Amino acid sequence: MSGLYPWQQSLWHQLQGYIQQQRIPQGLLLTGYAGQGKRQLAEHYAAALICEQPDANSFACGHCSACHLFQAKTHPDFLLVEPDEAGKAIGIDKIRQLTVKLALKPQFEQYRVVIFDPADALNNASANGFLKCLEEPTERTCFILIAEQANKLPATIRSRCQKIHCAVPDKQQALAWLATQGVKQNAETLLQMAQGSPLLALQYQQQGAIELRQRYFQQWLHIAEGKAHWLEVAEQWQKTEPLETTVLLTWLSSWLVDLIKLAQAAAVNELLNPDLASDLQGLLAKLNLKALYAYYDKVLISRAQLSTQLNKQLLIESLLIDWSQLSQS
């Protein structure tokens, strides 16, 4: 299907149904892991709502004046709300600016579409401000919210949105698509690292993430083995070889999950990082399982706090201090 990824066809059929039945939801919430193309899906849907003459499959025609403006990112009835910087919150000022624009009627005869990406970056004040937009809908306006952690949105917002969960595609379908992108070597490992999300796996391949993850893992392992000091590793992670903290904590949590699985006698093929199974198995004998669960909880809490104003370097140092103490207990 034109412009969509293979795993998005069933999702598009659902969106197509809204258009053909002329039952456009006031709010639409797209959820799922990163790296599946939620933003692309949202933009295809937005383009279809804005287009003056959609085709039989409800895709935007690409030729009308509205489509030309949309493609040039100058359509007055298409609005994008996102943080000023990646990882930052969407503040109340963004919502105030949006409210002013929504007070006016759409300039074209079709829909006005507002995409929030990521919607889970709304803070308390901006979420409350946006709720008023949902409670008092303006003429021919559709809100599309994109979120990896939809539970961070207030229940009052979630309940007013039609929800579409973007599940990770079938493994074979994802591998087949990666092959079309020239990713054949280590494709399964990359896909496992990306938690099944093909676009993220492709990004990892382009960044040489397998080698980078192996280096980080060995340094983490050396702390447990007493071969490296936590401060030295923290400085290297934050300064010498900076890695996005979200990715780092995702990898760290996956190693801990695998340790817990191995403690429960899980098979290697059930692990998130089967290529690291041997080192993880050797590490397991040095750890207290109860303390390991508590440490895993702390990592999850740390991941949830990344959108706040916390000092990420201090966060990493704190996690590595606890890890060094855990491995010595």
Characterization of this structure:
With 329 residues, the protein is α/β, with parallel strands linked by helices. The protein has 15 helices and five strands. It folds into two domains: 6-165, P-loop containing nucleotide triphosphate hydrolases (Rossmann fold), CATH 3.40.50.300; 208-328, Zinc Finger, Delta Prime, domain 3 (Up-down Bundle), CATH 1.20.272.10. Strands 2-3-4-1-5 form a five-stranded parallel sheet, sandwiched between helices. It has helices at residues 9-20, 38-50, 65-71, 92-102, 124-135, 155-158, 171-180, 187-193, 198-207, 209-224, 230-240, 245-263, 277-284, 289-304, 312-328; strands spanning 27-31, 78-81, 112-116, 141-147, 162-165.
Total individual domains: 2
CATH-assigned homologous superfamily of the largest domain: P-loop containing nucleotide triphosphate hydrolases
Q: Summarize the main sheet.
A: 5 strands, parallel
Instruction: Output the CATH class name of the largest domain.
Output: Alpha Beta
CATH architecture of the largest domain: 3-Layer(aba) Sandwich
Uncertain stretches? none
Q: Pairing-aware structural class of the strands and helices?
A: alpha/beta
Give the ordered list of helices and strands: HEHHEHEHEHEHHHHHHHHH
Distance between the termini: 56 Å
Overall pLDDT confidence: 91
What is the CA-based Rg, rounded?
23 Å
Assembly type of the chains comes to single chain
Strand neighbour order, sheet with most strands: 2-3-4-1-5
Q: Give the overall shape, derived from the CA principal axes.
A: globular
- Roughly what fraction of the amino acids lie in strands? 5-15%
CATH topology of the largest domain: Rossmann fold
